[in-house]
Write a structure and sequence with these properties.
The protein is an alpha+beta fold. It is built from 13 helices and 20 strands.
Amino acid sequence: MHHSPPDDCRRDITGPGLARRHFNALAGGLWLGAAPRARSADPRAQPGTAAEAGGAGRWSNWSGLQHCAPQQWQGPADENELAALLTGAPGPLRFVGAGHSFSPLVPTSGTLVVMDGFSGVRRHDAATQRVTVGAGMRIAALALQLEELGLALPNQGDIDVQSLAGSYATGTHGTGASLPALHAQVRALRLITPAGQLLEASRERRPELFDAARVSLGTLGALTEVELEVQPRFYLRRRVWTAPTEELLEAAPRLATAHRHFELFVLPHTGWSAGIVHDEVPAQPPHRAGSDDERLLTDLRRLRTLLGPWPALRRWMAGRLIGGREEVSVDLSWRLLSNIRDTRFNESEYHVPAEQGIACLREVLAVLERHNEAYFPIEFRHVAADDAWLSPFYQRASCCIAVHAAANEPYAYLLKEVGPVFRRHEGRPHWGKLHDMEPGELAELYPRWRDFLALRRELDPGGRLLNEHLGRLFGEPANG
Ligand SMILES: Cc1cc2nc3c(=O)[nH]c(=O)nc-3n(C[C@H](O)[C@H](O)[C@H](O)COP(=O)(O)OP(=O)(O)OC[C@H]3O[C@@H](n4cnc5c(N)ncnc54)[C@H](O)[C@@H]3O)c2cc1C
């Protein structure tokens, strides 16, 4: 079936109600967490991929940085159609979920395969807490259905509009020192290979494929279905507060072990940071702190524009805007953990060994504070280790450090100047975010790198799933 490019990739794919969520704000307007969700919104109304037509069948990602004009857009409705495409459609074939990756994983001049047709909860077993789900399903849509079943995902990232398969393919994560990345919830998967073959994998059945395919950058085949381990529905209490950066950096290791979720937003050129903790609480009526749409980000940008040349004045003024705020909210886990990010940006994120996290964060802050143009918060999170071969958390508890630049502003310094800091700390890049790692470096960082490449070659000897970026990353020709 030929799939028409959707009209508008900029639309939030969970529907118009949820799309109105805001950056959270304290009284001064801080970029910290979720505003209350619109209760009437129904994330199951998925208007399609976040890919953009952009006119004449062009696609672009969420930030607008990555583009392509594929020869074909395809939206297979079932595994048979998908298998036929994989063997017959012009390459390179690239799968797309919500188009929320910053790195050029998706662009293709060949066939863009929109995976929205593989969605919905197909089976669930409340006793074993397992659900079987179409792999193209959006996280928010699944979270809502799980809520209705009395279940919940153990963790989520900063947003929830991504597809499950897209999230797993890039090692998407939330925060929590004892909580692994999202793909660690997968117990079994179904994959259609570039030869059109259906393979099923789990720890018991094809364990090597299972370890490779959970984080695959979409290069082993198309994920069509996953079985996930979930947990009973639970409530969280969130506390957000601002404090001097030095105070929070010192408290961070303790906060990370004391709370189910801990994250830090360090605000460059201000001397202030925001801590966010979430902890499980008994079921109770939701209570949400008041919110203000993206005001802090606007304030920080204004401060940069007006006072950038006078760093001391900028810092003093920022302190007056930011200092000493606190808010508390309580709600169902999924309603608190993810946010809407209305302001478009580009982002780079690396994952460093947990024990090096704060030292690395200090160096990243120092680099950004050499740039008067920097104003986005640095995001600092914890993720537990897992065992997927290309997981950035492979056998390594990690701290994740993310740096951003507005979508319409230069970002090269994030790679050229912050990148070397991450490299010094053995950072592994987030596959879906901007990085400039070379194959030789990646082989050093990933103990199973060569095993993954061998399996990839076996499943896709012709490189039909390799675009230019992936060919370069794997040191392989991309011939489609
Ligand atoms: C505003 C924003 C906030 C973010 N927050 C976080 C965060 O908190 N934590 C975090 O870790 N990341 C975060 N990310 C990154 C994001 O989670 C990842 O880039 C994720 O991959 C996006 O999912 P997607 O559905 O958009 O995938 P896409 O970008 O569409 O695709 C990603 C990869 O998955 C492959 N793929 C998609 N579907 C399939 C399939 N069915 N089978 C096989 N391969 C497939 C694609 O080919 C591609 O290689 C954020 C991104 C944005 C824009």
